[in-house]
């Protein structure tokens, strides 16, 4: 199954005719090829976007809103096809793609179809000076959107929807590891009536295709989600070009559990926040801290629940844990399990690769629970990004707050307590861009989304996203 680039509303081969294998991780086999686009392909995509920009940026908000709603509706209509494509490309359970990934991709477009009709600006009267100021928020022009392999269509559309809603035209690159649903989005955009050239999708490696987008002199803003190291590289390339940058990077998120929590709710949600999407979500609570008085009980109950999770082929209806996204990622995650002893840890559950019947060559790993003695160990300091969590006890708020904040990342925290004063104290002092209290991954798309420290720069979501994708201009008129 060869897929093509989507440029100027058409599906085209890469100019240099370079291709990369596309794997189905659940069976460990190549099932297609994707373009490894070069700078020439990116230039062609840029030219299409540039030509489409004058008309698109002058399209009425009502017209833009209608087209984005069409895209949202068509994604919903094609849920089954898109979910199957996602599960095949990423290895995640089909049930998860159906319940989360694809519906959220549709919501991303519907949300910004509505938001753009409500996005306003400010005026400031210079009283006594006979002057009036108003702020224009104009689209930037051609922008670049680069997304990762963990939530492919979900994160791809989370960038594209606000970018085009705000009147920009886009050169977008999905991860080369999970290109399929991005490819299918092209046809949906044509069917939805999106004018050609407004969205262009180029496939290929980050170091070639992604790099060409970031260093293109006229692509004036880059919205990126992916690894922290890659984000730092992109910032080095883009900074001297004074491009606007939105960087959503890795996380090493604390899950802090006090004894006064709603225990059953906490336990069920903690299994999800630990292992959803095989733990390949930057928001997963990968460092679990439990108040001493319930630590032994939690340890026993949590290990029991984790042992009941079903590892299987993503297309089996009762699969909870599918395949990891690639062989190299499986090896990377396993390399952390292999150092548990030397890091002073103890594997309480899991830790082994799994051979799934009928999918023997797939990339499967048991959900793994590791007890650690110190927050300073590599297992608590580095993003593993797989079905691996650590647990350790704490005895006071001060102690757990210090450990929670003592990492380079600052994306999200989860806090389980019913004590209001403690909730406010902890929420105000946790160094993360998001704090979930008595829940996890409950998402209101109006809220600012993103992290601090090594988890990135800038925020996505709601009007934050529309501000990122527009340039504010102050117009000051003297009339007296
Ligand atoms: O991200 P990459 P990957 C973390 C997680 C994971 C690590 C690598 O730790 O193990 O990042 O994951 C493109 N110029 N997260 O491989 O490599 C690349 O082609 C321009 C957290 O997915 O950063 C892909 O499209 N683009 C994250 C995208 O960047 C480049 C979710 C992400 O690739 C590039 C996923 C370059 N030089 C991984 N190099 C989160 N926060 O959600 C790569 N790319």
UniProtKB/TrEMBL annotation:
GO molecular function: oxidoreductase activity, acting on the aldehyde or oxo group of donors, NAD or NADP as acceptor
Active site as annotated: 248
Matching Pfam families: Aldedh
The Aldehyde dehydrogenase domain, residue ranges: 15-475
Organism superkingdom: Bacteria
Keyword annotations from UniProtKB, A to Z: NAD, Oxidoreductase
Recorded family membership: Belongs to the aldehyde dehydrogenase family.
Protein name listed in UniProt: Aminomuconate-semialdehyde/2-hydroxymuconate-6-semialdehyde dehydrogenase
Species of the source: Tenacibaculum adriaticum
